[in-house]
Amino acid sequence: MSKNDDKPGQGSENTRPAARLPKGLQDASAQEIRATEAMLATIKQVFELYGFEPLATPAIEYTDALGKFLPDEDRPNAGVFSFQDDDEQWLSLRYDLTAPLARYVAENYQTLPKPFRRYQTGPVWRNEKPGPGRFRQFMQFDADTVGAPSVAADAELCMLAADTMEALGVPRGDYVVKVNSRKILDGLLEGAGLAADDTKTRLTVLRAIDKYDRLGEDGVRALLGKGRKDDSGDFTEGAGLPEDKIRFICDFLFGRDLERFEQDGSYSNVNTLVGLLATLGSSQSAEEAIRDLEELFELVSASGYGSDRIRFDPSIVRGLEYYTGPVFETELTPTIKDQRGQTIRLGSVMSGGRYDGLVARFTGERVPATGISVGVSRLLFGLQLLGKYKGDETRGPVVVLVFDKDRLGDYQKMVKTLRDAGLRAELYLGSSGMKAQMKYADKRGSPCVVIQGGDEKERGEVQIKDLVLGAGLTKIEDREEYLKKQAEAQFAVPEAELVAGVRKVLDRYKA
């Protein structure tokens, strides 16, 4: 058999795979994982406080169960990653956690408490073009209430979003929960003269508006018209609206001075809504939306959430097609700069809305539902740029160095002693010498190492070297101070006091 006959993966030099990460995906380091877990623990506490219960659904669903709420094309995997099973049925990786929830509720409707309140966290996948801050796999953390028709359920989720931000250390004034209604947008489309049965144009318009946080007003105007070419040269076809309809929509969304409805020196959501209703005229959809939103803002206000925290914004759309009523997005308001010092537009970090028709796809009966979703990666990215959840508080394990390879049993016993005391510890398992072992411990972020050579063994001692303190010795110019710190950086203790000696170092850094 020649080399060219070798199958991929069998070691042929010509068929070695390239070590490369697919576009739109990312690896996660230990530091990032710990930061994420710390943030998720805080979010979970808030969601549990509100009475939501955990639920887990599988990553793969039947494609028809997920529905086609992402960009609508002929092929079944447009917007989602799909494949065919042995029985030729289409399966897809979930693109959010809400569509699987609808399937779960429909399948278990008779046994579930109504309303049904659940939270869930896990990865989701989008078969879309990746870009800065836009990944093909990302994590969501959702809370949903199914079976509650009252707008009080929507108001509660807005308050949940605000409480979550503050629990994560975002002070009041550094975030805002923006609220709109799909019914108001329906009224806007009616006012623009778009026929109710022109579904394709309406969806294209809504998707264009939904990109405002990334593309700004000019980008939205281009997508409402002929289309837009991005920085890579790719062209996105627009809605093809004439200039007068584009002007009508953009004047409503971006040309309004919302503060002109201000009364008594305070911003008023309700007064803003009254002014908008006059703009939209006799739209029944808009009238229904105004009543719902007036009640929502009255409810959040009664609980002490002012318009500095939860406010109306007519440009909020939400991209998925299944929303039917109030929609909301949470944004961080401080100016955020990346590592290069450039200002970036982060967009929504926590969003959702009402979707009263999703469960009906399975049951034929309309089941009211509303939910909210945390964009975990985006929120963590924003919080870290604001100096929170850096993930660098956890130091590496204590490393027991191997001075004599014939005494591995002795060194392993030391490691077990430290672990039994609840301390993170590991035995160096490589084959390098002491200098390389020290470098290894440095790379692991170890606070200290344990050393025992033949002389220490005879004396029944171990040496403990503080790597953090030792790294700073070269910066000390005063001789007496240097000798004092040197003695603290490396010291001997009896073998029986190994745990106490290591704790002495760890206590310096609260590791």
Strand content: 15-25%
Helix content: 25-40%
Distance between the termini: 58 Å
Question: Could you say how many structural domains there are in total?
Answer: 2
Number of strands: 18
Low-confidence stretches: 1-5, 71-75, 257-267
CA-atom Rg in angstroms: 29 Å
The CATH architecture of the largest domain would be 2-Layer Sandwich
Structure description:
Helix 1 (30-49) packs across helix 4, helix 5 (182-191) runs antiparallel to helix 10 (284-302) and helix 7 (212-224) packs antiparallel against helix 8. The protein is elongated and about 95 Å long. It folds into 2 domains: 30-385, Bira Bifunctional Protein, Domain 2 (BirA Bifunctional Protein, domain 2, 2-Layer Sandwich); 398-509, 3-Layer(aba) Sandwich (Rossmann fold), CATH 3.40.50.800. It contains 18 helices and 18 strands. The model is unreliable at 1-5, 71-75 and 257-267 (pLDDT under 50). The protein has an 8-stranded mixed β-sheet with strand order 1-5-6-13-12-11-7-10. Strands 15-14-16-17-18 form a 5-stranded mixed β-sheet. A 3-stranded antiparallel β-sheet has the order 2-4-3. By secondary structure, it is an alpha+beta fold.
Task: Give the SSE map.
Blueprint: H1 30-49, E1 53-54, E2 60-62, H2 63-66, E3 82-84, E4 90-93, H3 98-108, E5 116-125, E6 137-146, H4 152-167, E7 175-181, H5 182-191, H6 199-210, H7 212-224, E8 227-229, E9 235-237, H8 243-254, H9 269-280, H10 284-302, E10 310-312, E11 326-332, E12 350-354, H11 360-363, E13 369-375, H12 376-385, E14 398-400, H13 408-420, E15 425-427, H14 434-443, E16 448-451, H15 454-459, E17 461-466, H16 467-471, H17 479-489, E18 490-494, H18 498-509
Parallel strand pairs: 1-5, 7-10, 14-15, 14-16
Antiparallel strand pairs: 2-4, 3-4, 5-6, 6-13, 7-11, 8-9, 11-12, 12-13, 16-17, 17-18
Helix pairs in contact: 1-4, 4-10, 5-10, 6-7, 7-8, 9-10
